[in-house]
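User: I'm curious whether this sequence folds into something compact or stays loose and floppy. Could you predict its structure so I can see for myself?
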Amino acid sequence: MIQSGNGEGIITNDGAPLLNKIEVGHPAAKMLVELSKSQDSEAGDGTTSVVVIAGALLGATQNLMAKGIHPTVIAESFSAAAIEAEKILEQVAIPIDLSDRESLIKAATTSLASKVVYQNASLLAPIAVDSVLKVIDPSMPDQVDLRNIKIVQKLGGTLDDCELVEGLVFPQKAVHAASGPTSVKNAKIALIQFCLSPPKTDIENSVVISDYTQMDRVLKEERQYQLELVKKIQKTGCNVLLVQKSILRDALTDLSKHFLAKCKIMCVSDIERDEIEFIAKTLGCLPVASPDALKPEKLGSAELVQEVSENAGSAKLIKITGVPKPCRTCSILVRGSNKLMLEEADRSIHDALCVIRCLVKKKFLIAGGGAPEIQVSQKLTEHSKSLSGIESYCLRAFAEALEVVPLTLAENAGLHPITMVTELRNRHLNGETSAGINVKKGCISNMVTENVLQPLLVSTSAINLAAECVKMLLKIDDLVLGSMHFLST
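Assistant: Here's the prediction. I'll summarize afterward.
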């Protein structure tokens, strides 16, 4: 649990946000924070593993340098070791097909295993898999744009109430005035970026009205202006209105809400600017910045727009379903008892989405539970015996450093680390490439049969990025503190 300076808290065991929130001053420590960010953008998962591996490699380099080995030699040996490690992992990888939904769910579940929300993995993993498969564009089958999946947080309920919505979800209520509609079938939807309120001048001013007739005229003009705007909207056939939030003036007034209700137009206000592109893509509509530009062909459509309450008495939200096909977007509604749980669920689902994205990019799975690291460690040690001189020594140090992952895993599970890693090493020497640490049963077992699987890309990316970061640090001779000199004139 991290408490920031302004009093806000965050509860997580996801490496990237954890390191982002901690204030670090040392440049080398900042490089490790950047390392976890790189892993997060490249693979989305394994942000903790990459920092742990980098730390173990730095420990190994310290021992090697203490023995008089030059940093350049260590860096070159580590580069060769990382390339060899990737080849070893590719040899033990299991190819999968995206039609094999069960294998994808197993990989997503493994990603959620280390998270606070693991008890809800049976619900969240299928949601993550189905949402990614839905947004894959046939023209680019190896790429997934996660911006097409929107995670909407709504306070209230529990994580069991999370759901995948093929359409849009807005956490706010519909605008209510004069018993306006809260449910519309065969909706024609307009997405507007202008305000339904009287215009204001660009500069701050005050108008002094001295008699009642002038006051009456101002009010009539304002009323007529707003009525004309609503009539223009109604004329296009629109029956659902999405209004972008305005910082200049109120996007809606009580009078414009009244007119919209009378015209049976359902209204949703306070749409954020960064949501506009996603909404337009989902509904097939065009955002309209001026009342004169509003035309029927710019409207989107949906079978049903309704204001719903998940449970009796709970807060309301708006769902738009039955959007036009093919729609390469979807929304995930996340419910939770408090803000911290919602944010952690959001981060965990994002990691699961990234794992499925990895499998779309590189369609290979490997066993989890420390199995890949021990396999690489063992094979690299064997390979080091075929080399001679200092390079062999460096390669062996790299191999030993990778054992930190199963060692840490055993320690976190409350098991005896040295005993577990020794047994795991023996199993791999006997050809059991999928043997790993079973945290639940507290023993060594086959990770494939236990359904503990992870994408190949997560492990290869973690080893390569950690090795690259360590090489960069090895090239540094000394730390020089820069200072500014102010010249007096």
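Summary: The chain has a mean pLDDT of 86. Residues 173 and 391 are 65 Å apart (CA to CA).
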